[in-house]
Amino acid sequence: MSKLTLGSYPHLLGFEQLERLLERSSKAGNEGYPPFNIEQTSDFSYRITLAVAGFAESDLSITVEDRQLVIRGRQTEDMDGRVFLHRGIAARQFQRMFVLADGVEVGEAIMENGLLHVDLTRAMPETVVQTINIRKG
User: Fold this and answer.
1) What CATH number is given for 30-122 in this structure?
2) In a 3-state reduction of DSSP, which class is residue 118?
3) Rounded to whole angstroms, what are the CA distances from 109 to 44, 65, 79, 105, 135?
4) CA triplet 26, 45, 99: central angle to 5 degrees?
5) Which residues is 113 bridged to in the sheet?
6) pTM of the predicted protein model
7) Where are the domains of the chain?
8) In whole angstroms, what is the distance from residue 22 CA to residue 97 CA?
């Protein structure tokens, strides 16, 4: 049995990029850490919130790479003579990736109370009606 692709459907022209996008997002390698929420804040805006307790702003980086929002965190080990009897809070790094649709722009990022908020806006789509003239061949 052959794998069905978007190219298998004759009425879906030019959607090869969407297929690559779906494949890329499934391989994003996101684990369950850190936990996050995605909320719709208006008809054309969203907010991604990550729980990043223990991270300082300088420990975090936010980039957009090839239509992917990439949020990375790396804490520095500060062991200055500290002796742990139990260590349940690990200083670990993370990388979260979110695939962005065309027209979605990353706005500001805000850190408050151990939560990192990243605001996104989507441009309002423009309705275009085009008439194609038929010429005699």
Assistant:
1) 2.60.40.790
2) strand
3) 17, 16, 29, 12, 53
4) 15
5) none
6) 0.72
7) 30-122
8) 13
Q: Name the residue among 57, 81, 83, 82 with its Cα closest to residue 71.
A: 57
Name the amino acid, one letter, at 9: Y
For residue 37, give the DSSP letter: E
Residue 69, beta-bridge partner list: 64, 98
| Residue 92 backbone dihedrals phi, psi, to 5 degrees | -125, 155
Q: Which pLDDT tens digit goes with each residue over 28-66?
A: 555 688 999 999 999 999 999 999 988 999 999 999 998
The amino acid at residue 48 is I
125 secondary structure, DSSP code: P
DSSP at 85: S
Specify the 3-state DSSP secondary structure of 8. helix
